[in-house]
Amino acid sequence: MTEDNLVSSYRLNNRNYLQWAQYIRTTLKGRKKLSNIEGNDLSRDDPKFEAWDDENSLIMTWLWNSMTPEINRNYMFYCSIREIWKNLIETYSMKKDFVAFYDIERKIFNSRQGILSVTEYYETLNSEETRRSVMLDKGNSNIGFAMVTGKGPTKRSTSEGKPFTKSSHGEYCTYCKQSGHTKDTCYKCYGKEKVLE
Question: What would the pLDDT profile of 30-75 be if each residue is shown by its tens digit?
Fold first, then answer.
């Protein structure tokens, strides 16, 4: 990266002021030019004014090149980097909270959950974790395999006395974590009367 295009790789737009400002400050600090935006402007009668003015002009072009055209045209007629920097702070530091808030609100509004409720996603995740732990249980691998796949000689009954029948073979309830039925027909979840309706 040459000094001519020092900061043009990261451009200020209306949404990234904080990141852009940090990038500029770090870049200027690395070039030992941070005092140009933090310090005071020199007066024309100062013996160091000409060198300062040359450096000031160089940094101003870096800043202009690091802004989108819609933004940099507002800063083309400032006389010093310090004036530009001060105005940028005044312009964007008030916006930063609103822009960040808007981005968060937009992401929340646009996020989609799918067809299941959060609880159902959670239960599905727990069910999968239970299945994995059963599959990885070395001591009861045959029973675990039969429970997870629904295959094997194991006949089980649920706590409600509902036997493991051919129609319920391989079903697993994500609510009560028992085999032999699904959540839709779970007595513990909906009550026996509701399920039998």
Answer: 999 988 888 888 889 999 999 999 999 999 999 999 999 999 999 9
CB-CB contact of 75 with 63 (8 Å): yes
Bridge partners (DSSP) listed for residue 179: 172
Confidence (pLDDT) at 100: 65
Contact between 84 and 65 (Cβ < 8 Å): no
The residue ranges of every structural domain in the chain are 17-110, 118-196
* Amino acid occupying residue 158: T
Q: Are 187 and 195 in contact (CB under 8 A)?
A: yes
**Residue 122 corresponds to which tokens in the numbers above?**
């959670």
Q: Using the Cα atoms of residue 104, residue 106, residue 109 and residue 111 in order, give the sign of their dihedral.
A: negative
d(CA 128, CA 125): 5
Question: Taking CA 186 as the corner, what is the angle to CA 181 and CA 191, rounded to the nearest 5 degrees?
Answer: 155
CB 111 within 8 A of CB 122: no
**Please, which residues have CB within 8 angstroms of residue 62's CB and are 6 or more apart in sequence?**
3, 6, 7, 8, 27
Residue of 47, 28, 50, 30 whose CA lies nearest to 39: 28
